[in-house]
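User: I'm curious whether this sequence folds into something compact or stays loose and floppy. Could you predict its structure so I can see for myself?
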Amino acid sequence: MLLSDTHGCHRDVRVPDGDVLVHAGDATHAGSREELEDFLAWFASIGNFEARVLVAGNHDVLFERDPILARSLLPRNVTYLEDAGVTVRGVRVWGSPITPVFEEWAFIRAPREIDAHWRRIPRDVDVLVTHGPPLGVLDRLADDSANVGCPSLLARVNEVRPRLHVHGHIHARYGQLMRGATLHVNPAVCDDGYAAAHAPIVVNLEARMIAAR
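Assistant: Here's the prediction. I'll summarize afterward.
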């Protein structure tokens, strides 16, 4: 079960049951402790998921400005990934909150710095979760003025070829796209007006095939 960019509207979202729940960042809007606590209480309690995986987004500033506090708030059944991985049922998942320069928010990295983060992505990753998209993949702004994904991330995705790449950040490009061996999913719940407009996306990940519905 995939979702992202709830921006404080999580309690307006109906989440069907599944095996693994993944949130690709921007759980909060202003990044306050109160927002994060409310989101985590919700995220930890909905459904009967075997695992719950969270990556921060650029709005989730507490994870970068006060990481000790933010991590102390994590419920025991929530796995937070920051340039780190976890294995669930033999499926290797890697997550990173890093995005290219985008105003004065969290986890923003300049081009000269960002490649070092993507180099940490293991070659045997099955599911990659990043807050931002790779260049040219579900990354075009709502007015079609530009593609804002990360070229360095695209290069690494083409190298490691994960079966599934989950990324949000660009609210206007909710949906999914198959590129080569990788299914890309943007499960952004909020639209550009920060209203909960989209449903979580269900993906079935099997041993040799990805089927999405």
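Summary: Residues 2-212 form a domain with the Purple Acid Phosphatase; chain A, domain 2 fold (CATH 3.60.21.10). The chain has a mean pLDDT of 94.
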